[in-house]
Amino acid sequence: MPDRYDVIVIGSGPGGYVGAIKAAQLGLKVAVVEKMRTYGGTCLNIGCIPSKALLHASERFEEVGHLGKLGIKLDAASLDLPTMLGHKDATVKSNVDGVAYLFKKNKIDGYTGTATILAPGKVAVAKADGSTETLEAKSIVIATGSDSTPLPGVTIDEERIVSSTGALSLPKVPGKLVVVGAGVIGLELGSVWRRLGAEVTVVEFLDRILPGMDNEVSRQFQRMLEKQGVAFKLGTKVTAVDTSGKTLKVTIEPAKEGEAAAQTLEADIVLIAIGRRPYTEGLGLEAVGVELDERRRVKVDGHYQTNVPGIYAIGDVIAGPMLAHKAEDEGVAIAEILAGQAGHVNYGAIPSVVYTSPEIATVGKTEEELKAAGIDYKVGKFPFSANGRARAMLATDGFVKILSDAKTDRVLGGHIVGAGAGEMIHEIVVLMEFAGSAEDLGRTTHAHPTMSESVKEAALAAWTKPIHL
């Protein structure tokens, strides 16, 4: 007789494990099927967590060279890459062990293997030893996440031509690194290896970096990265990578046909970071009739249910930004829905962070989106160069930008480029959750001196006038 559950969650990434824990807390009997040896999915194992460990370590490594400006005299820093990678691995282990503990604490049954949906309410788990186990449940939640999008004609071997996975474990600092793709992943990992000594060139098909973000943020941030030594080839595509020699030969051409002749870049490592695609293969979705969209994402309704009753999906496999915290919120929402409650996610107030140096953090609408929608808006900006704490910290690069409705003063978007932007964005997120105004934020007392005073000043600028500019 198959094991019977209230909910079977396929995948233990941020959406899957959070959804499973919340469902168990609400009294449901839960099973999780995970194909990896450890829980946590891409984010905890080979994505968000290990990359942040390397970002932090590489930033501290570079910071040593600038401490003389603060009166701290040190010999030049030397890199111990194996120890740095060991810190990254220890961080991963601590996080995935934490998820395993939470599963045990909440009495969640974990199954290691590849899941196939046989029918509504029935899942087969193929294990590494060749055996198969069948599980049954009232509901099935697909939370299988995403994987790296391949570049046609280029084979990733995770040694010389790498995805984000291989870029997290390079055994030595490459002399020359070519990053294909100027999105979040490419810029974060490219910046890690640039700080550790690599010569980095970013090749992007579009004519700008960070597509989808506010144009002003994108333009100013590109200039900051160029000052740091990152080179860009925009409006350019990679057509081939020759692996026959000691160094890789990367053929690039203008994205628009006929504009210029092809060029060749030399590289020790090529990082393919052109995006991610939903992981929906091998789940048996076609066989049970689950509909996919044109990008092979699972179609769901407003309650995360597919066209097949009893089968749900959340996270990267459905439409929306591929963000771990978006998946987490959907995990909570689907657990509440399955428990008979009213789960909900406010997609208009989901922040996004680029963990470079300085960081970028955004929430809500960009100027371009507001213009396209015909919304009359006001802009308030405040530079960190006018902030006392930023001057004291030598962290004056960047600015805060607040977008508010010209008639109601309601904040419609917030954009921060600067040190600690990923932490500062959340007061704007909370404000937007409660439909707050620029005046509300501008009148809120902020401790002095803090970087976040610049958020208040930008809000004052959107409402009326800033004080310190």
Description:
By secondary structure, the chain is an alpha/beta fold. The chain has three domains: 3-148 and 277-345, FAD/NAD(P)-binding domain; 161-274, FAD/NAD(P)-binding domain (3-Layer(bba) Sandwich), CATH 3.50.50.60; 349-463, 2-Layer Sandwich (Enolase-like, domain 1). It is 32% helix and 25% strand. The protein contains 14 helices and 22 strands. The protein is globular. The chain starts with a strand and ends in a 6-residue tail after the last helix. The mean pLDDT is 96.
Could you tell me the mean pLDDT? 96
The major sheet is characterized as: 7 strands, mixed
Number of domains: 3
Assigned CATH class of the largest domain:
Alpha Beta
Relevant CATH superfamily of the largest domain: FAD/NAD(P)-binding domain
* Number of DSSP-assigned strands: 22
Q: What Rg is obtained from the alpha carbons, in whole angstroms?
A: 24 Å
The CATH topology of the largest domain is what?
FAD/NAD(P)-binding domain
Share of residues in strands: 15-25%
What's the oligomerization state? single chain
Overall shape: it is globular
Bin the helical content. 25-40%
Which architecture of the largest domain would the CATH scheme give at its second level?
3-Layer(bba) Sandwich
Cα separation of the termini: 72 Å
| Tally of contiguous helical segments | 14
- Residue stretches low in confidence (pLDDT < 50, at least 5 long) are none
What structural category do the secondary elements indicate? alpha/beta
